[in-house]
Amino acid sequence: MSELQQFGTPTEEGPIYDENYFLSQFGEKLCFKPPNFSSTLWVFWSSTDQSSCPSLNSDKIEDQVRSVLHDMKVMELRVGTPGILIQFWAPVIIDGQRFLTTSNQPFALTSIDEILCSYRKCSVKYKFNVKEDLGFPAHAFRQKLPLLTPDLRYFSKQEHPWWRCVSNSYLQDLYAFPVFDASGQFCTGIIEFVAAPEFFPRFGAIKQSFHNLGALNDKPCILNGLKFFNLNAWDEIDKAFEVLRKNLELPLVVIWVPCRQCSDVAYSGIPDKSCTSFYENSVQVLHAVTARSSFELRFIDLHLKRGQGVAGKAYLSRNACFCSDITHFSFSDYPLAHLARFNNLAGSFAICLRGGHTGDDDYVLEFLLPRNETTGYPQTLLDSILATMKQHLPSFKLASGQELGLGLSVEVINLPLTQAGVSVDHTSPHVTAIQDVSIKASYGGSVIKFKLSRTSGMVNLEEEIAKRLRIRSFRIFYWDEEGDKILLPSECDADLRLCLETSIRLGITPIKMLVELD
């Protein structure tokens, strides 16, 4: 096979190469370079004339993307790695308006794969107006900040319109980040990664490779100028987290710190705006993991703007905030919500602090809590957290100046912050959490109805159905919000959680299911 080939329609005698025949199914006239000793990816680009949709990037950003993809030598993208697609979303002009599209833009695969082909074919059908916040590419473009999720099925249809075309496939992890022009102020496009499960922790190395190659200005968050690295402050925080981890068995603590560099990019230098950025290396240093050790090595490139989510609200108010279930937030409301759902966490307690060694920088410590700890307002648990912080963080105070300890006023967030009529209460009101849902399952001419805990897995659901219907080998389906019949694969708890949480969010009760024999 030659270094450079052009895909077309197979001859009547059949395709010369299996890859050539397979990739002709993309529906685009493609050129490609296969992996070789200096490259780890199959790299594709369109030979179609794009004059009807001129790119806004005069310096041929598409050529730079193609060059970077071909030169990448990241071990995580070695030949044969299953299920990774990298594609570029570029701003183009259509009828005088700017849209993001991946059609006729370069993309890359780790292997020739039917599922990746399906995802790519669906992607090229969509374009997103950059003035609107519909579609995750447009969201990242407008915010000028990266986004990621451990399960793309958590996106709403408005956020990711085509994920259902591969809903029963292995594709799950998604990461997208903006690239900029030489000034670092103007976004020139979005790089999207979609991958098989458990690739999530390796996105950091891949993003770094884009930066190292130097062809794309991806504005890595390096937290310039932070006093966060003061050893006295760090040692104090580290010891406090170790006590919290051991004594209270908290599954995850996230540190949010102000990032001036990201703020300058996101707001194009507007001085009265700010964002906070999670410093990804702190997960590895703090070891704030007990119940779910997979968090410890996860790549977390999440950013918040002031007032966004629980941590952003705490940062804005310089106070403490609590929400009993952040999984009800959409991704745009709170990017951390997907990570909480994926790990069966629910509640969030965030507190904004300033220490004797931190100068003018405020940090937010956010504690994500197990679902069974957030029935209503967990007064005892939060009191324990505050008491431990007072004892083991002696140089820190609330950013507003109040001393740590019992008696602090905690703002309780009852609804996603962007919803009309959001309720923010003070002190400790009771917040009711939905613990059980009603299931109505049909089998043949029979219908059964029973209660199921929100925290149940597929084993629990299958046991309830088998016990009542006296059957063994069967499949379970449900109908999503669009009326599509969706299979619940056995032993796939994430799919069941998605079904339950979506139905609860939409007020669908009871949840109707269909049982069929294998």
Automatic annotation (TrEMBL):
UniProt cross-references to InterPro entries, sorted A to Z = NLP (IPR045012), NLP1-9_GAF (IPR055081), PB1-like (IPR053793), PB1_dom (IPR000270)
The residues covered by the PB1 domain are: 436-518
UniProt GO MF annotations:
DNA-binding transcription factor activity
Q: Which PROSITE patterns match?
A: PB1
> What is the recorded name of this protein?
PB1 domain-containing protein
This protein's species is Nyssa sinensis
